[in-house]
Amino acid sequence: MATSILLLCSFICVAVAQLSFFPNNTLVVAGNISTACTTAMNATIDCDPYIMALATLDDFTSLNNDTVQQNVCATKCGTALSKYHNSVAAACAKDPLPWDGTPATYIGDFVWAYYNGSCLKDTATGQWCKDYITNVSSTLTGDKQISDLPKSQLCSPCIIQLFKHQQSTSFSNYDDNMAAEWASVQKVCSTTGPTAVPTPYATPTDKPGHVPGNATIVATGTLKIVNDILPDGSNLLAGAKLCLPQACPTYLVQSGDTCWQIAVNNGIGYTDFLGYNPSVNNDCSNLLSGTNVCIGLPGPAWNGTTIAGATVTKTAEFAPSMTSIPTNAAKGTTRKCGKWYDVQYGDYCQLVALNNSISLPLFTSINPSINSTCGNLVSGVAYCVWPMANWNSTNIGVPVPPPTATPPGTTNTCYEWYIIQSGDGCYQIEQAYEITMAQMQAWNPDLHSDCGNLLLGEAYCVSGATATSTPTKTSSAPTSLPSPPGPTQSGIASKCNKYVMQKTGVFCQDMATAAGISLAQLYAWNPALNGDCSGLWTGYAYCVGVAS
After folding, report:
1. One domain, residues 117 and 235
2. Which segments constitute the LysM domain (predicted)?
3. Coil, helix or strand at residue 36
4. Rounded to whole angstroms, how far apart are CA atoms 274 and 221?
């Protein structure tokens, strides 16, 4: 048989309704197969492409989004996967195996098995089983197993169905431990069914399925994620070049281990363990024996110094300065951010953190709108992925020198600086640092009241000495309102105190959601939008808040 060649099966999710296992002519095989077989394998399937990413991660936790769950589990997808199997099996019946030890139907069958397991529903309530199992599993602490649940929860249709499915397929993580647990569940719930561990596909140890880990001292799960390797390693062929994640102190998972036990035995916290191993689910349901996990932070040891306010030097973990805040920034996210990332369809927290070299705990801390299961990432919303070191600091400390040139007259008693970048305006800086225009002018007296003379590349003080006295407001003195950061359309609310700049690809609902207001409020304050967003103009400022 010809030399094995890496199967280039792309798992990137795109916003289309068709799934292709081998997009852009990436089907590469180790043997000579017929045109009919190749055509059948290259067929597109009427499934949401996101199912491929979920299957690759072996993710059976709740998606926390009923619309996405319905799209992934559409009936037409199950029908299409069944037809794909039958078509490939028939077209390739007389052909040699396309890869050593692996049939032509393998990729399709792998996704089909995931579909059948992750799309289970409680027939009585209509609830998705992934949602139910995630909810009841959250009550388990320490090394407790599913079988430790109360009988009323343990004997639910969802748990019974999932055990039956996991036992029936070669594509699951069903092993001897799960078989014993399934037998225990059957006894408690007075049900019956086979418990034997199904025979997996047999592949040579130096061919598909052998995923390195020990020799390179990296986490097996992370290695699979960054190289799009299937959970059982069956699409990893001899001679393949791998992208290696950063090395870490590792532990080889033994049969019967739990995440909690591994964390305690190695002197680390449970949350730290999950942060070091982003491929492991929050409930530890996909921990596999025989794989490496990190028990320490990947990468070289950090030996930087803390930011005491006496210097602007920062380590590579933190941004040296703040960048412009996007109009679609997530609500509550720190504004002291050096890099923003627009979440794409199919993204999840671990992947975003890995791709941007930020720890998972730090990523979720600087983006507090993300819930504990990371099930509410919003496509099209910008999240901070590189914060400044003082992103959550409220301690002023001692004055620090400016990082670059400053305008004439700028105060020397300054605790925090901001370097002006292209497109900046006073309003954005005020919002980011929660200061007023009066404070900006007090610390930067060269600044005009209309903010028309900001100097690109120069440093402005955004946290200076507190004024000795505060002017008393009187009823006759009107409250000053910020100037819009760009041109506006006619009819905009006269008492507008908060604006957003429209950008290409950002529409009315996006602006309203990002600002935490209703669509009706946006239309009321911006009548030029015509009540249906048809009057939206790119590059114009729109009102998203009014003074009471």
Report:
1. no
2. 249-295, 339-385, 416-462, 497-544
3. helix
4. 12
